[in-house]
Specification:
Elements (H helix, E strand, L loop, with lengths): L1 H15 E7 L3 H12 L4 E4 L26 H18 L4 H5 L8 H13 L4 E4 L2 E8 L4 E8 L5 E11 L5 H5 L4 E2 L17 E2 L5 E3 L15 E4 L23 H7 L6 H5 E6 L3 E6 L20 H24 L5 H9 L1 E2 L21 E2 L25 E5 L3 E3 L17 E4 L6 E4 L11 E2 L8 H7 L2 H20 L9 H10 L8
Parallel strand pairs: 1-2, 1-6, 2-3, 6-19
Antiparallel strand pairs: 4-5, 5-6, 7-14, 8-9, 10-12, 10-13, 11-12, 15-18, 16-17
């Protein structure tokens, strides 16, 4: 009995004294945890939901990457494992392997399995699912511990570590630690950004209006919903969600009448991407004037979790309501009914979440105020704005076009685009180096921030993609290793060894 008691104390203590604690089981958090563990460190990974993998395991099945050569390293390992899993299951010449597009497109359950595989290979990683961050303990402006709570039992525990990592979409650890952060969007004058602040911008084109004023508005949050066309793998919607109000969706009829986006109301409202195993990824299109999701996330980021859950449920029901509307409303044309009814929620996805994605697509939350703030001039080439895309402390490359969902619902006089939408600005975005300094708080030590990193809203609209976050997570893992190895603050990690180790791991740090 005494031996058992002593063993139990040792096990409990192991959770309280780790090298690295990562808050957020997002792809960026997983990349950090796995990288640090591979380099010999004990890691605790804390995730709010019952599943890890963030958006990649919750419906975002088409990787957001335009230039594959720019992001390799851990992300490339991820897609290679996805492809290998499909080949092992179906054969190299199968239709499912073709549909996975070399591993860059996948079902949520496959992404989760791959992430779990990474974790399982590392015995030094402890994963605490269904736990939430409660607070951070500070000493001399350094994070020395965090308190987390088991959401099933409400039991709290304290985790101590040498390095703490904020890999949450919301930026919860930077707030708990008292680090300075930004929320909302800067004005056009704050960083001299042509696309900052209140704006009307032609999708993929030029600014056509807006005051340029900064505000606390957030780009719309939505869900990415996997659906199946295989009747044996469907859980059909049999009723409208609670609080369903068809009038929320009738604005899409104006888009149909305008003829700007085609003649099928379902594909006006949704982007439908074909995935393996008779599934599709449903993404809410932000270009229609009838887009219903803007402003529905108001208050989410700074709210406590009960209020966040209420807002999440509201957006979930609004999403299901749109699908129900397209499937059943008597005014919706038959061609749209036919398309919408072909797809239903998947029986083999998210069973404990009623076959609906567990992760709200939090496109932007708090953003650290770090040693360097990435802004529009650091990610673009455009007339009248100096391009400063190279940095001596580069640890990754960003490549995705500036892309922000709308900030406001349709306003009086809106006839072209919704306010705040910055849709795939390929014309000006260029591959750019991401400096290490955007992950380092100005004053707080012991904390590195690969996901809610230090950028303006405009620049965040380019780095806020899972492949980029995996690259930043890998860099954070290597930086944590060097800080621990050399007993030095994260802000004083030597860049040359950091870059060398990253390149040895396949990371790209020089745009090509």
């Amino acid at each position: 009995m005494r031996y058992f008691y002593f063993f139990s104390i040792l096990v409990a203590s192991a959770l309280h004294a780790q090298d690295v604690v990562v808050i957020g089981g997002t792809p960026g958090g997983i990349a950090t945890a796995v990288t640090a563990a591979r380099m010999g460190h004990t890691v605790t990974l804390v995730e709010y939901h019952k599943r890890i993998g963030g958006m990649s395991a919750s419906g975002l099945g088409a990787s957001d990457i335009e230039n594959r050569a720019m992001i390799q390293g851990f992300f490339r390992e991820f897609v290679d494992r996805v492809k290998a899993q499909y080949i092992a299951a179906y054969g190299a010449d199968s239709e499912n392997v073709k549909l996975c597009k070399d591993g860059y497109w996948y079902e949520p359950r496959v992404a989760e399995q791959v992430f779990e595989g990474f974790i399982a290979e590392q015995p030094k990683i402890t994963v605490l699912k269904h736990h939430q961050l409660v607070s951070a303990e500070m000493k001399d402006d350094r994070v020395v511990a965090v308190t987390i709570m088991n959401r099933s039992t409400n039991v709290e525990q304290k985790l101590r570590a040498k390095v703490f990592v904020d890999a949450t979409y919301e930026g919860d650890l930077i707030a708990a630690a008292g680090a300075e952060f930004r929320l909302g969007r800067e004005s056009r004058d704050d960083f001299g950004e042509p696309h900052a602040g209140h704006i009307y911008n032609v999708p993929g084109g030029e600014r056509i209006g807006g005051t340029g004023a900064g505000d606390k508005r957030m780009q719309a949050f939505t869900f990415r919903i996997p659906l199946s066309s295989n009747v044996e793998n469907q859980v059909p919607l049999v009723a409208a969600p609670a609080g369903y109000d068809r009038t929320r969706y009738v604005g899409y009829f104006d888009d149909l009448k305008g003829g700007r986006f085609g003649s099928n109301l379902t594909t006006i409202a949704f982007t439908v991407r074909k995935l393996p195993n008779d599934k599709v990824e449903l993404n809410m299109k932000p270009v229609p004037l009838g887009f219903v999701f803007a402003e529905e996330n108001a208050g989410y980021i700074e709210a406590a979790w009960p209020e966040r859950e209420r807002i999440t449920a509201k957006i979930r029901d609004l999403s299901l309501g749109l699908l129900w509307f397209l499937q059943h409303d008597s005014e919706v044309p038959e061609n749209a009914h036919e398309t919408a009814l072909k797809y239903q929620p998947c029986r083999d996805e998210f069973p404990e979440y009623n076959h609906f994605p567990f992760q709200l697509y939090v496109r932007e939350g708090r953003r650290l105020v770090g040693e360097f703030t990435l802004s529009e001039r650091n990610i673009t080439e455009q007339h009248g704005l100096p391009s400063e895309r190279m940095h001596e402390d580069a640890i990754a490359v960003g490549e995705f076009p500036i892309d922000s969902f709308p900030m406001q619902k349709r306003q009086p006089g809106d006839t072209v685009v919704l306010e705040g939408y910055l849709g795939m600005l390929k014309k000006i975005t260029r591959p750019y180096q991401i400096p290490y300094r955007i992950m380092i708080p100005k004053k707080i030590d012991g904390l590195i921030v690969p996901v809610p990193a230090s950028t303006t809203h405009v620049a965040f609209s380019s780095i806020r993609l899972e492949p980029t976050w995996m690259a930043l997570g890998q860099a954070a893992g290597v930086a944590a290793h060097l800080a621990i190895l050399n007993d030095t603050p994260l802000r004083r990690v030597l860049i040359e060894p950091l870059q060398t180790l990253l390149q040895q791991q396949g990371q790209v740090i020089q745009p090509q």
